[in-house]
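User: Hi! I'm working on a homework problem where we have to compare a predicted structure to a textbook description. Could you give me the structure for the chain below?
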Amino acid sequence: DGELPPRVRWTDRRIAPWIASVFGIYFANGVVQITMGFLVQDRGGLEPAPAVSITALMLLANAAGAMLMQLIVGPRLGWGPRALLRAGMTLALIALTCLTLAPTLWAVAASTFAMGVASGMASPGYSAGASLAVNAREQGGIAGIINATGAITWIVAPVSATALYGWVHLSPFLVALCLVGLSCSCSWWQLRRLDVASRARE
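Assistant: Happy to help. Predicted structure tokens:
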């Protein structure tokens, strides 16, 4: 028939805890990637020209961490969405703290790689958990929300991070740390009572 599928709202109580538990890492990733060129120059004492290739390597380390987790390690772990999201957000909080305080480029690289690993756990956990939280007819609606969650933070993070970095170098990382900490707390407390499997069968 021509009946439209049911609309899924951001405020749906089946979905909202998953969104609250992940948005911090999306914002943090935007901050890290948009400020990496500045970090390389400031903490490595490099001129703009040689900093370009180092910045590319830092971003590659971040992507490598995410790919390693999603393609190789994650499937072998066999963890459910909630466990993946919690582990990813906890690691993100640790990695971002280390990146905020990193005194050398080697420390920046290690922290950036760890942020990629964290994303490689948290993002699939969120996507799977939010998808399982709704029924089959709502899958189209939830797919849009899943993709839009990251997109919205990517609109805000680059602009705000650049402005904040120009004001006080540590400020965008401190804001990101607060959001990651909030999301990490949500992943442990708000998701505690959710029965993902039963929601999917409704």
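For your comparison, note the following. The mean pLDDT is 90. The CA atoms of residues 92 and 118 lie 5 Å apart. Good luck with the assignment!
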